[in-house]
Amino acid sequence: MSKFKNISSWGKADSQSTAPGTLDSKAVKSLEGNLSRIRRGRKQYRTHTDEAHIQQLMSSIREHGFTGTIPVLRVEDEDYDFEYLGGHTTGEALRRLGYETVPLSIETVEDSLSLAEFSYQLNGANRPLNALDDTLAILDILAEALALKLGEVDKDEIPTLIRQIARETEKVDSAKINCIKETWERNEFEISIKSFAASRLPLLNLNEKLKEGVQQGLSPASALEINKVENPSARGELIDKAMNMSVTAVKQAVREELKAERPPSKPPVWEPVAKFRSFAARVNKLNPNSISPGKQKKLERALASVQKVLDEIENS
Question: What is the pLDDT of residue 306?
């Protein structure tokens, strides 16, 4: 979550950076707006809202009323007049309580980077984003910064650039590297680039069910452990149980499941069979033309003797 405390300080912090995106706080206006005419924000990074939190907000509004404003942007859309910049959950609580109109603060942003950074700030102001949503939000902000400063950028390249910074390896593209560092410092992300590379980027490789688990509160460390389990059914059961388990307990459960998944070890080969295989390999390498007739006959008699014993065993 960004540590910027308000709109003005956010705009000031942004103006000191190399990225030109800013929020025009002087243009903020307040008015009453219809809730049904507000659409979901383009940069709403929170994918899952806890029902308990909505109920808590509803209880508070019933008791104290709603005295704040919801930050929005004007949009050109025949179905909507505004879109949420923040306050999605508050808007849902008000809608359920029967509010039709609410006080809005009309904000103005100059570009997509400003929209991304300010939305990130507002989304995490009261409740931190879950680890996966936060990861995707940071990557989106970096993509907007790179696009604004350097032109169109391949989003799939950003994780590679982050790993380069974390490992302090030879930088392939210093302009992109510097842009990422500057954006990271300006937003004061609460996780370092090294920690992000080590603990957050691996979340992108999780299967969809595990990603959903993280977005609903599953610990990232637990998710990465459960990802080691190959059996989909067993993995699904672990995801459900892990919501109420410590990481240590999850690791133990995964170890037990992996042990159960291992195929049973093959019984040792019977010694006579092992010897016969060895003899057969040696016989296969022999050149009949280099063996004397007497030794050829001895070998043939020996093989015939073995075959006779095998026939007796099979027919007994």
Answer: 85
Helix (H) or strand (E) holding 33: strand 29-34
Q: Give the tokens for residue 123.
A: 């989304």
Residues 6+ apart with CB under 8 A from 125: 1, 86
- Cβ contact 96:54 at 8 Å: yes
For residue range 247-289, list pLDDT tens digits in order. Answer: 999 999 999 988 887 766 677 888 888 888 888 888 888 888 8
Chain Cα centroid distance, residue 306:
62
What are 30-62's pLDDT values in tens digits?
899 999 999 999 999 999 888 999 999 999 999
Q: CATH classification of 29-107, choosing from 1.10.760.10, 3.30.9.10, 3.90.1530.10, 1.20.272.10?
A: 3.90.1530.10
With 0-12 / 13-18 / 19 or more C-beta atoms within 10 angstroms meaning exposed / middle / buried, residue 100 is: exposed
Please report, for the chain, the start and end positions of each structural domain, with discontinuous segments joined by +: 29-107, 111-205, 208-265, 271-315
Three-class DSSP category at 186: helix
pLDDT for res 170: 67
Chain segment 122-159, per-residue pLDDT in tens: 888 778 899 999 999 999 999 999 999 998 788 999 99
**Per 3-state DSSP, what percentage of the chain is helix, strand, and coil (rounded to 5)?**
60, 10, 30
pTM: 0.72
Total residue count of the chain as it appears in this document: 316
Q: What is the DSSP string of 62-116?
A: HHH---S-EEEEEEEETTEEEEESS-HHHHHHHHHTT--EEEEEEE-BSSHHHHH
CA-nearest of 31, 42, 174 to 106 is: 31
Q: Mean pLDDT across the chain, nearest whole number?
A: 86
d(CA 225, CA 205): 13
Q: If DSSP states are collapsed to H, E and C, what string results for 121-166?
A: HHHCCCCCCCHHHHHHHHHHHHHHHHHHHHCCCCHHHHHHHHHHHH
Backbone angles phi, psi at 32, to 5 degrees: -85, 135
